[in-house]
Amino acid sequence: MPLERLPSCIPIPLKEKELKEIVSKTKDWVVMHGIGIRSRTAFSEDSIDCAPFILLPSTFPRKEFQKAVEIQTTLNELMHWVAHDQEFLRETLKETIQVDEFTGNLFKIWETVLSEGVSQPLSLGLVRNDLMLDSLHSWKQVEFNTIAAGFGWLGPASLTINRFVLEELGHHDKVENLPENNALTGLTSGLLEAWKIYGDPTAVILIIVEDITYNICDQRFHEFELKRLNSRVKSVRKTLTDIYQQGCLNEHNELIVDDIVVSVVYFRSAYTPDQIPSKNEWDARLLIERSQAIKCPSIQYHLAGTKKVQQALTKPGILERFLSEPKKIAAVKEIFTGLYGLDFDESGDQTIQMALNDPEKFVLKPQREGGGNNIYGQEVREFMLKLKDSKERTAWILMERIHPPISTGYIIRAGAIGLPQLSEMVSELGIFGVIIGDFQKILVNRQVGHMLRTKKSTDNEGGVAAGFGALDTPYLI
Ligand code: ADP
Ligand code: MG
Ligand code: MG
């Protein structure tokens, strides 16, 4: 089946002279407005490269965009109840945690705090639901991120890039088709609300970071926005190793770091094995979970965001366990694509056969985050042949491959030589949500903005921080 195509928002190609000028000017504009990323090849804490971006915004069907926005609060609600259904999480993850050490360790932390008694019943979710169009008229969910869902700054910042370019090129009338995007304020307000609920004005917001942060602008702008919204709130950045060395609990189970109480812990790290490299960092993760601080995410939110849980949610009758309104259930089912488990049972064997017969139709995914972990195309077959008889197979899921419509545009990257050429591209939309709630109730449930990433249609993955995709804005038609 030929792939559908999306039209460009203005006539392309641009004339060579115009293209050269606008690229050079926009790259400067981008760096000078804090839309950057640290270089992986020439890393320095003192310099920031212009983040990769798409010169002109990519067109999107307006109705589908609105649908993706509208479903966010339902998905927030769904994931909140999933995270608080102990029986469901246990049953769903029971095989996976036997073979996936990382998920197994997260699960142990969850079991430990449940058996000890939970100090802080509230969870904070700063989440992102990722979708791809699979035809011009339907969205399919790629995944739901409950930990370190980035681009709260770079999402809205992309809008300012594409608005700047359209205006520079004289297309002022087109700007109204770029939807507003207040993701940064929305997400940061969530942090602030959790800080207020904690109720100690002297307590800080702790951001757990990697040893080296490449996506520094995205993270720092959250901190700057916190200050803008309330100049009295202090945030501190620490690694899990720092917390192991410097953190403790007081007699009320409050988390104390550098003699200061922590009210909210915002994880921008701790979602891959290399970010929790030894027992020390696992101990730090447990210490945080044992504390009274409000966690973003709590351990149950983290577990609810695993790919295995995503797959289990597509089984018949499962959504009904978490959502009561038939309209909401139907809307969520619409964005699910085929997801299959690889358990040691008849259905797992059928899944394997299906993948071997038609590998190009699927993506094979482990329980990992952060991009670059999936298997695509013919490799699905080779990999499946190895996985088939290994006990590791229950750590993987198989997902139908989504084939989004193709757009054409210019991808701009720092350090690229010569004028950019037109590329065939596909996009992935992320919608941000904020949730605060506990075992019994949801206090806050909002949709707060979006981000769009676009990559070459021939590339499998599209993470911007991982080095594949580029920042983009939907141009609604
Ligand atoms: P991660 O948690 O590592 O981001 P994802 O499930 O989002 O894992 O997969 C990474 C990337 O792989 C996505 O951003 C998307 O570009 C691509 N991808 C994932 N699932 C599919 C799919 N079903 N069809 C097409 N591309 C996919
Ligand atoms: Mg993810
Ligand atoms: Mg992803």
Describe the secondary-structure layout:
Elements: H1 16-32, E1 36-37, E2 49-50, E3 53-54, E4 58-60, H2 62-70, H3 72-83, H4 86-93, H5 96-99, H6 101-116, E5 123-135, E6 138-145, H7 154-168, H8 183-198, E7 204-208, H9 216-229, E8 235-238, H10 240-246, E9 247-249, E10 255-257, E11 260-267, H11 279-290, E12 294-296, H12 299-304, H13 307-312, H14 319-322, H15 326-335, E13 339-341, H16 346-357, E14 362-366, E15 375-376, H17 378-387, E16 396-400, E17 407-412, E18 422-437, E19 442-456, E20 470-472, E21 474-476
Parallel strand pairs: 4-21, 7-8, 7-11, 11-12
Antiparallel strand pairs: 1-2, 3-17, 5-6, 5-18, 9-10, 10-11, 13-16, 14-15, 14-16, 17-18, 18-19, 19-20
Helix pairs in contact: 1-7, 6-11, 8-9, 10-11, 16-17
The chain binds adenosine-5'-diphosphate (ADP) and magnesium ion (MG) (2 copies).
Cofactor: Mg(2+)
Binding site for Mg(2+): 143, 145, 369
Organism: Hypothenemus hampei
